[in-house]
Amino acid sequence: MDIVVRNLSKRYGNFQAIDDVSFSIPGGQLVALLGPSGSGKSTILRAIAGLETPDSGSIELVGEDATNLPTQRRGIGFVFQHFALFRHMTVRQNVAFGLEIQKLPKTEIKERVDELLDLVQLTAFAERFPLQLSGGQRQRVALARALAPKPRVLLLDEPFGALDSKVREELRLWLRRLHDESHVTSLFVTHDQQEAFEVCDQVVVLNKGKIEQAGPPQELYENPASPFVTEFLGQVNILRPETILGMDLDDEKPLPVPIPGSNSGTIYVRPHDLEICRTRGDLPGWPALIRRLTPLGWLARVELTLPDGTSVHVQITQATSRELGLESGQEVYVRPRDLKFFDHTTEESGVVNYVI
Amino acid sequence: MKPPKPATSPEMTWPQRFLIAAVLAWFGLLILGPAVALVRRAMEPGIGRFFAKLAEPDAIESLWLTAKITAAVTVCNTIFGIGMAIVLVRQRFWGRRLMDGVLDLPFAVSPVIAGLMLIILYGPRSTIGSRLSDMGLPIVYHLPGMILAGLFVTLPLVVRSVAPILEEVGSDQEEVASTLGADWWTTFRKITLPTIRWGIAYGSALVVARSLGEFGALLVVSGNIIGRTQTATLYVHDQVESFEPHGAYVMSTVLAGLSFGMLIALEAVRNRTHRQEYGAEESQDPSVERKTIRPTRRH
């Protein structure tokens, strides 16, 4: 375990930024701290870096207790959202900064800087100043600078948050490749679920200073442990049980999924877990009215209204939509392939009653 | 600092032209006119007389005293100004807001009043003043008092030039430096100081200019003893009073020239560094604004 956080808490006045958070990250992994703004993810990262002093709890880095270690001696690399490049220094000087602090011989510094500039593909820009670079280039300089002194762990605070979406996408893939080559244990803060899924081995989902769930991305998506995680990871339709229970269904042909018996809960159905049929046929389904049909390239989004007025939206391929000849205003039937039910009465730790 | 080039572009409208003309006229009336008048009067008897006047012992003596005060005040207030700016921006403590407000007091209070306050506290009849005087360190009517007056009057200048830069840059760069292993002093020397260097330069230049030209506080504190506590501005005043205006013109020209030259030099050096860091192609890239502190996004 390269990063171990135990019972970390931090309070700002009345605001509990981190609330008894514990997790550990195995060596060589790239892990995301994912959560909405104010969920405490950046505070945790800054606490690990020693830039923030936690009220309680402990931090261990590569087997060494770092709780009271000053930032300078933690052996970390840190990348900020706004790059934080030293603007009065050239790219080369920026990357060399950490090595010069270590008082390495000049030739060795030059060698390492050249190696890193090559790694981030900025050799041609070595003598430029940060303000002469594009956003993506600046962030690559920041990464090279953080990696230069061979940190034990790399901490990234929304590193692509200040970039536009195309550059962001490129850099994500690039970061993943970089990590596959360098294997530095990395912790990555983001509020973007897509980013976390695309880049990281493991994802820790945070909400209101607490960990909601941790695990591999696909695992979280398929088996969310709480309503929050279900809602935060991807799009989801939220239904009240009454909507479904009150519906006129053929008793002899039940839905392929069990319907919750409890009235005090919430049902979550992902848009791609709903199937649309023109006729009820042999299969059961909820009657619905198409309000709007939006083709989105190879996908189509269908907005529907259920009998009690609840609106749901469904994702089907454009091919299916064409095959069914869907149009807005049509009466159709919807069937869930999969749904999740969270019972409010037992919700405490996000008990999943139905995972199908 | 300078306005962008297209001031004479063909598509300029009449209201724009009028506005520019009005600004130029106002500038000429208020600054250029008086300055030209002064220099003309100073040079009227010829360049030889100009330097002869300047070489008189009283003039030399007063300039030298002004130089000493200016040097001391600039060094002190630059160092303390940097420290105060860092404390005000980076630290949170009880009374910070109060300190922030009171800091501008020297701007709000007439220098004469500042001088008076110093006399009350350190004057020969005060406890502290007489005590210090007995110890061989007289304040009022001597150099230390004049330096104190200068310090008081110029206190906010460096702080107010440096603090906004610190605030705008934020502490990200300093934090990165610490994650890279730099201790406090290294970070200050290699990151903070270069970041605020133009704020410091600008603030110090203002301190120099203000010290050169300070009159009211010095008049009260110095006692205006010719050859001993007479500064250049007090010399100007004396010359006017004793109906020898030429000396006043000459000294005024020298003082104004010094301040003006310094500001010009500062601007030139800053433009050069600026071009280096922002790149020569800056004018073609509207997304990178001149003088912006925050890293600008590019698309």
Describe this structure in words.
The complex is a heterodimer of chains A (356) and B (299). With 356 residues, chain A is of the alpha+beta class. Chain A folds into two domains: 222 residues, Rossmann fold; 121 residues, OB fold (Dihydrolipoamide Acetyltransferase, E2P). Helices cover 27% and strands 31% of the residues of chain A. Chain A has ten helices and 19 strands. In chain A, the strands form four sheets. Chain A has a six-stranded mixed β-sheet with strand order 6-7-8-3-9-10, sandwiched between helices. In chain A, strands 13-17-14-15-16 form a five-stranded antiparallel β-sheet. In chain A, strands 2-1-4-5 form a four-stranded antiparallel β-sheet, with helices on one face. In chain A, a hairpin with a 2-residue loop joins strand 4 and strand 5. The longest helix of chain A has 18 residues. The two termini of chain A are 33 Å apart. Chain B has two domains: 30 residues; 239 residues, MetI-like fold (Orthogonal Bundle). Chain B is globular. Chain B starts with 13 loop residues before the first helix and ends in a 21-residue tail after the last helix. Chain B is mainly α. In chain B, helix 3 packs across helix 13, helix 8 packs antiparallel against helix 12 and helix 11 runs antiparallel to helix 14. The interface between A and B is medium-sized, with 38 and 28 residues.
